[in-house]
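Standup notes
- DV: blocked on the single-chain target, sequence here:
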Amino acid sequence: MPKRSLGGNGVPKQELGNEYLNAIMQMNAVPLLEVQDLWIAYAHIPAVRGVSFTVGEGEIVTLIGANGAGKSTVLRAISGLLPITQGKISLAGEDLLGLPAHLRAQRGIAHVPEGRGIFGNLTVLENLRLAAYPRRGEEIAADLEQVFELFPRLAERRHQWGNTLSGGEQQMLAVGRALMSRGRLLLLDEPSMGLAPMLVREIFRVIRRVNRQGATILLVEQNALMALEVAHRAYVLESGEIALAGPAGELRHLPQVRAAYLGGV
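- DV (later): unblocked, structure below
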């Protein structure tokens, strides 16, 4: 078992050695995503320090932690939007280092960034079609039908400009656009941010559903309670390091995690 010490939020901090990482690797067989000893710095100041984790095919894995813990930074590095100082990122065994973001997207990484990143001067339909531009018309039509079935509100607003949608509708569009790309790995960065509680439940319902349909998801989410309810496994990031890792259901019931991230519920 890895050693534990108390982190700044009172969460047991694990020193993840090779024995622990090997056990995770064996559990996932060949992981779809493997991140090893990841270091990222802003202006020479480390923001992520020695982070290692895996995401197996068909899993939902969540990264939780306080603001500034490095969660979004990790996602941006995986998708190629940020350079790394040290480490390795692999997708289905292929080393992604040196590949720019557009080639990582071609390899199957679909990133839904914090803030949604939709094209406001395009319609809902144009935003969705743009994500599927390399493919044929019949395939695109089938995928559009699936997205509209998941998000009926988008179907109603298919000819509406992106910048006229509500925040919740823009989030639906951002997720739908990622699904249109048929990515192998879906990176979701704060999908519930700024949404009303009813829309938060709707977004997480869709996350569960697309996972049941085969999608592999790496989820960064400030709403730790919802994230731990939907995920199979979880990693707690604290000050750029992994403080705790394990099955999401087990972490959800740890008193230290409940006190630090779940409001003591």
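- Follow-up: The two ends are 28 Å apart (CA to CA).
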